[in-house]
Amino acid sequence: MAPDLIEIEPRELKFTFELKKQSSCTIQLINNTNSYVAFKIKTTSPKRYCVRPNTGVILPKSTCDFTVTMQAQRVVPADMQLRDKFLVQTTIVPYGTTDEDLVPSLFSKESGRQIEESKLRVVLVSPPHSPILQPINGAVKQELTYAAPVFNETPVMKETPLVSDQELTQDENLHPSHDPKDVDDLKQKLSNLEVKLLEAEKTMSKLREEKNAAVQEKEKLQHDIALLTRKCVARVQVGFPFLFVVFIALVSLALGYGLHP
Fold this sequence. Notes:
By secondary structure, the chain is an alpha+beta fold. It is 31% helix and 28% strand. This is Vesicle-associated protein 1-2-like.
């Protein structure tokens, strides 16, 4: 079995959950191959998260980090669990490929390219030294719990149960994650395309003018050739050739001498 194109560290997205506050985590992609590897990040909840960058190219034997930011939430999820998942798609691209060269069709399986996919799950944890959020009868209750002080130990964050592996294998609608930078990039690409389109129209107009001029020149040459042809024919038809006249004269002289008594 061929090794994976990249390694992902860590294998889960862990967010410190606080009401009405954003939370971010960083994932590192490690390219251990000697090839250029392109990646794309998708999620089942594109409105809840912002990913930067959501696409990119990892150079051979290099790493690339992307940051996922969970938007501020107004309610606490049931049992502090989210079924949100992320999908990391990777594929080998030609040497020298840049981020600007990446297009959505590059990660389409219909193109026949080999696409590797890795799923990441979301884990919510409570901030240290904060009330533990527990759902009671559909409502959220904040219950203060205090542990006896323990010296020389770091605070332990309460971690919610992980989503089962079976749930990870279920088919879900994965959507490309949003990146505000993508909008500016698309606008810039659209502007560049409009400029190129104008240049192409100018070039086509110039080519049409050159074509019309060439057609006119061709018609003029054909007209001149026709005139020259008619003049040559007229010259041949007027009078007899000089050699023919000389020949007739010699024949006449010979006959004259022959008939003379």
